[in-house]
Amino acid sequence: MFRTGFLILLTLFAPAWAMARHVDVIRLTGVIGPVSVRHIAAGIARAETEGAECLVIVMDTPGGLLESTQMIIKDILAANTPVVVYVAPSGAGAGSAGVFITIAAHVAAMAPGTNIGAAHPVGLQGSIPDSTMSAKVENFSASYIRSIAEKRGRNADWAERAVRESVAITDREALNLKVVDLVTVTLDSLMIAVDSLKVEVREGIRTLHTRNAEIREHEMEWHYSLLNTLSNPNIAYLLMMLGFYGLIYEIINPGAIFPGVVGGICIIVGLFSLQTLPINYAGLMLILLGIGLFVAETHVASHGALAVGGIIATFLGSMMLIDSPLPFLRISLSVIVPIVLATAGFFVVAVGYGVKAQKRVAVTGAEGLVGASGTALSEINPIGKALIRGEHWSAHSKEPIESGTSLVVERVEGLTVHVRRQTPSEES
Question: pLDDT value at position 127?
Fold first, then answer.
């Protein structure tokens, strides 16, 4: 009787269980870096906690940093929830680091009109000029991707060629060469195709039940999205230069406060962004030298020589700042040229005027009275009254000055002006 009741309940609630099945979907686009690592780790953790059938990573990337890629692969290999990498939409690609991630997935799929390949490694410091070290990194990467491909039962020979020879292939070629498992048009068709597929996860074999499962797409969390935007080389470069503007303007014009605060924030955020990129410190030093030359131009009469030197140093430093052979990790020339010219204009015009204003003789207040001419309203011996710029002042003189005599202010102490006779040359 009990068994019959249990079977009835099981039959009644089975559709509800089926409807409760869900698949998590996240997207990985752009350059792969430290933010990508956090985004995927968070996606895997959420999928495991909420009991998702699988985590689908919809990917379109030109590549990224080898170190970040290794961390992502470790998370995928250690996941207890199957990870499906889907290179999509049409026109997308899995280049460089994207090849490693696709090969490491429990299930690898591509949309029609996509491509995969060109997996030559790029380290955290970008290009590696030393040929011996370059060979070591290449050999390590080739053996690394081969071991992953063999673990997943994929074409290890092609994977190694993707690293050593930077070969790239289309979705159909990838399917024929057993680089990927499936080519599907949409995410829904992918869910139908992988249904009932058995995959090996951390705790053993797991069967996917993805047909009619709810698809829950999770956007990148706002703080990860912000950090990802800031990791763009052009954004990082702009923030750094704006930070230099603000701090130097604050130093030259103490008390402005706002430029200094904004400059400090931009410098810190810019340096955070640059730490995720392959920085060439010689380029950074050239930029600092260029800014120093611009500052010197505002104080030294070099007839533009220092400013020209500053432009050259800043331009070369900007070109060298990101040390990578990959174009998506370098600063765009269309960003560098306007920024260098704007920097020159900022220091030569704006900061230059600020320095000149500081050197200008005061014309208001007590300091503005020094050197001003006036007339003695009474005999000053040593104290008397004087008319200075239409105002009556208590005057003091070391020598007697008759009433009506022209005089000159030497200094001001409180409400008393110290004066002397005006010479004939000064009167003219």
Answer: 46
CA distance 163 to 167: 8
Q: How far is the C-alpha of 331 from the C-alpha of 410, rounded, in Å?
A: 58
pLDDT at 157: 96
Which phi and psi angles does 108 have, rounded to 5°? Answer: -115, 125
Spatial separation of the C-alpha atoms in residues 194 and 182, rounded to whole Å: 9
- Rounded Cα distance between 41 and 48, Å, is 11
Helix (H, G, I), strand (E, B) or coil at 144: helix
- Mean pLDDT, to the nearest integer, of 216-226? 87
* Average pLDDT for 286-307: 80
Return the structure tokens found at 115: 């491509």
Q: Give the separation between CA 14 and CA 296, rounded to whole angstroms.
A: 78
Q: Take residue 319 and report the two structure tokens written for it.
A: 């070109």
Measured between alpha carbons, how far is 328 from 21 in angstroms, rounded to an integer?
Answer: 39
Provide the CB-side half-sphere exposure for 231 (13 A, CA): 21
In order of 150, 266, 270, 275, 383, the CA distances from 262 in angstroms are 52, 6, 12, 20, 53
- Match 């000159």 to its residue by tokens: 408
**AA letter at 5:** G
Is residue 355 very low, low, confident or very high in pLDDT (cuts 50, 70, 90)? low
- Average the pLDDT over 34-48 and give the result: 94
**pLDDT, position 2:** 43
CA angle in degrees (0–180, nearest 5) for 242-245-250: 130
Amino acid identity, residue 403? Answer: S
The phi and psi torsions of 126 (rounded to 5 degrees) equal 75, -140
Q: Nearest CA to 110 among 166, 34, 168, 197? A: 168
pTM beyond cutoff 0.85? no
Tokens of 153: 């039962």
Length of the chain in residues, anyone?
Answer: 428
Higher-scoring residue by pLDDT: 319, 127: 319
242-262 CB burial, b ≥16 within 10 A, e <16:
bbbbbbbbbebbeeeeebbeb
The angle subtended at Cα 288 by Cα 282 and Cα 294, nearest 5°, is 140
Q: Which domains does the chain have, with CATH numbers?
A: 2-224 (3.90.226.10), 232-359 (no CATH), 367-427 (2.40.50.140)
List 401's β-bridge partners, or say none: 380
Least confident of 75-84, 117-126, 249-258: 117-126
Query: What residues contact residue 411 under an 8 Å CB cut-off, 6+ apart?
Result: 370, 417, 418
Angle of helix 97-104 relative to helix 156-164, nearest 10 degrees? 170
Q: What is the three-class DSSP state of 349?
A: helix
Q: Pseudo-torsion of CA 135, 140, 143, 145, nearest 10°?
A: -110
